[in-house]
Design goal:
heterodimer; A: about 325 residues; Rossmann fold; seven-stranded parallel beta sheet; about 15% strand; globular; B: about 140 residues; alpha/beta; 5 strands; about 40% helix; binds cobalamin; binds guanosine-5'-triphosphate; binds magnesium ion
Amino acid sequence: MGVNPKEWAKRIIEGDIRAASRLMRDIDDRMPWVSEVLKELYPHTGRAYVIGVTGSPGVGKSTLVDVLIEIFRGKKLEIGVVVIDPTSPFTGGAILGDRIRMQRHSTDSGVFIRSLATRGSMGGLSRSTSDILRVMDAMGKDIILLETVGVGQDEVDVVNIAHTSMIVMIPGLGDDIQAIKAGILEIGDIFVINKCEREGAERMEREIMMMLELGARREDGWTPKIVKTEAIKRKGVKELVEVIEEHRSFQEDPERKKMFLQKALRIELITHLKDQITTRILDAIGHEEGLSRAVDEIISGRIDLYSKSEEILNRLMC
Amino acid sequence: MGQKRKIRILVAKPGLDGHDRGAKIIARGFRDAGFEVIYTGLHQSPEQIVEAAIQEDVDVIGLSSLAGAHNHLFREVLRLLKERSADDIPVFGGGIIPDEDIPKLKEAGILEIFTPGTRVEDVVKWVEENIHPRG
Ligand code: B12
Ligand SMILES: Nc1nc2c(ncn2[C@@H]2O[C@H](COP(=O)(O)OP(=O)(O)OP(=O)(O)O)[C@@H](O)[C@H]2O)c(=O)[nH]1
Ligand SMILES: [Mg+2]
């Protein structure tokens, strides 16, 4: 891309959609020049409020996001949406279909929707997620909705990025309660029981409430809330927004804000460092080929894995 | 960087046409070829398709039409792309499109048309040969 970073960043801040969209692609494709643009954008970020939406496949995450967009737009807020779907581990391809449920907002200039594939990353997000959120932040989005891929036992990276994390569940999926046991309880700020017209919604609500009472008190002092919704009929979503706003005012406390930022940046910095180091090592040893050579050496018994790893690192450090 | 960009492709069904089997088969074929496919579902207006293509920064738009409105809808997508200064995004398509319409659509700027019976592998091959993500 022949554009200078300053100019590129300026265009994004001024609202050039294509400039933003292209940078997101370059971030996702790990083009080396993106960090210069991200540096320029950084001073213009830190305003957007990120709401994470997690939950098993098909529970209605995208449908909820669609209705949330509508409600927030009614409040004249600018909305960014990031939706993540899994990359096929076999082909490297992906069908990104979350957008279908929110396409009616496609032509609203106050809404920007971007679909991402996980590209091999675990944890329910893609590696580029936080950088892409930052671009949306710099675009002036007030609220960013972040839909992750179906959360399993430890796909919970979203809590380190989202200011408010909601876990969406539906009645009649026994394994959701199991999932709660397995630790999801600690990460949800809001539990949404969607498709609540189905049998078992009340029972599920009681069960979650019980587990919340039994569980250890949260470090930050927030008591997780439970909301029942029927997203396709927009039922309960107003109440959900009220609870989101309640959690937002809780998070807005300066002390808590600082704590959140400290934790989030710590994780991001480490991740970024790891990424950069890995890239540098791979550049230094010559990527796939160099890697194969090193592996061959280990297989042949000339050197053990631990010494080889040290050798490569030492070479890089000098 | 040793890495190659993944092809990102938008598969869209413009207009009131409810036939989505072909589009879904093509979308799956693209995924299996290692592309990232954004599928926007049925009943899309040309405006929605163009905005989605811009927001998703796709390398190409694939339109599917079986209901006979292709002449108008495909052209409308091209026109809006130009209007949004995004006519560097190429457009191709498929579905039930009479032979006599094909040259006219190509003249208007549609890169290629694939009609019923097309093998998915051939479409994939065409994309790999003709669509190149920017550097
Ligand atoms: C199945 C079918 C239906 C199903 C659709 C189910 C579904 N969810 O898709 C149902 C029963 C719902 C249906 C309903 C109707 N149908 Co119908 N239907 C068909 C039928 C028999 C097969 C279509 C099909 O699925 N083919 C299989 C797929 C895999 O093939 P394909 O879509 O052509 O896709 C291939 C290529 O075209 C190409 N391709 C397609 N899209 C794209 C996109 C890209 C990017 C690329 C690269 C390639 C590509 O690649 C694919 C793989 O080879 C056709 C007749 C026919 N033989 O085509 C009629 C047909 C399409 N239907 C027709 C009609 C009129 C209707 C109805 C209006 C009423 C009616 N009389 O039945 C309704 C309207 C529905 C609506 N809302 O639009 C007419 C359309 C006439 C026209 N074009 O003017 C047809 C041609 C039948 C006819 N001869 O009259 N239909
Ligand atoms: N009955 C009922 N169906 C709903 C409700 N909310 C969403 N759905 C339907 O559930 C299905 C899945 O909805 P999505 O919004 O795509 O779910 P998702 O969690 O985003 O799915 P993935 O992204 O694939 O994990 C769709 O058919 C929705 O119409 C609801 O409250 N009640
Ligand atoms: Mg979804």
